[in-house]
Amino acid sequence: MTEPFEPAPTGKPSGIPAETRLAEEPRNPFEALRTRTLIPWMILGGALLFAALLLASLVTPLNTDDPATGQVAFMLSGYGVLLAWIVWACRSSGIGLRRLVGRLPARHNWLATLGLLAVTMAFSIGSWQVFARGLASAAPGVLEFLLEALEGVPDPPLAYKVAMVIVVAILAPVIEEVLFRGILLNRWAVKWGVGTSVAATSIAFGLLHGNPVGIAMVGLVAAVLYLRTGSLVVPIAFHAANNLVATIPEFVMGPMEPMDVAAEIEEIREAGLWGVAVVTATLPVLAWYVRRYWPGRGAEIPYPAKDRRAAGPGIAETP
Predict the structure, then answer these.
(1) 233-263 b/e (C-beta count within 10 Å ≥ 16 → b)
(2) CA-to-CA distance for 254 and 243, rounded, in angstroms?
(3) Burial class of residue 55, CB neighbours in 10 A (0-12, 13-18, 19+)
(4) Can you give the pTM of this predicted structure?
(5) pLDDT per position as a tens digit, 112-156
(6) CA dist list (Å): 10 to 25, 76, 101, 187, 317
(7) Model confidence over 162-194: pLDDT tens digits?
(8) Does residue 69 contact residue 63 with C-beta atoms inside 8 Å?
(9) Are 265 and 143 within 8 A, CB to CB?
């Protein structure tokens, strides 16, 4: 009686003994990665960068008390810590960072991706209105905190505008996509399976951006784009376009007036039905897209799948 053919490995461990697996399939470096080290890195790195900024403000003209300078310095510090952890995690686990990002996919339908971006952004804005309307009734203090955290710098200098565009449209999309859709999605897929990993990384992405429903949907669409193309280039471009469209109007308009939080909350209360209408119109389109391309039980994470395609016919491919 012949032995059953072992299918190609998916996001979950295959259950084959390690010595047998090494002979049959390329090693998955995400099995060795430990994402829990990110939290200590953020705490230690953040403390060191804060101390460095404080020292710089004492010996240079840098004024961290200035809102514009302080905001840019804070964002650069945060993304600097994340980038350092990404490089360290990839090197320590044997993950090729360049190969993880991948190349620009040939014959990708960018026009369809642009339409998908428009629908996703509309949903994100509408869902924020619905979410904020709920907070205005149930937890106005939380909404006030979020609005103050999202408030921009009144009448910012040109240098601040340029720096923020670079951070928001280049650094943030690249680093966040490599972290969430690249490292976390591939690592959690090894532990829990691809579908669960897509959901978990998208929820985490939304919670960390203060718009748990709308930005989680952005993360969900970006994850599907990554799985479809096998490259982070497309979700990075998708993310960058989203941030750029959301940021440019703020800088194109004239000097900003200081936010009146009470008036802002009242406007949110009045715009609640508008948000419901936008969500109702856009959610079916996004639900159809995500459901159509949702990873099945045998779905593979893109990074090891590239190894198997290069290995030739000796490795079985999942349909």
Answers:
(1) bbbbbbbbbbbeeebeeeeeeeeeeeeeeee
(2) 20
(3) exposed
(4) 0.82
(5) 999 999 999 999 999 999 999 888 888 888 888 888 777 767 777
(6) 12, 36, 19, 12, 10
(7) 888 899 999 999 999 999 999 999 999 999 999
(8) yes
(9) yes
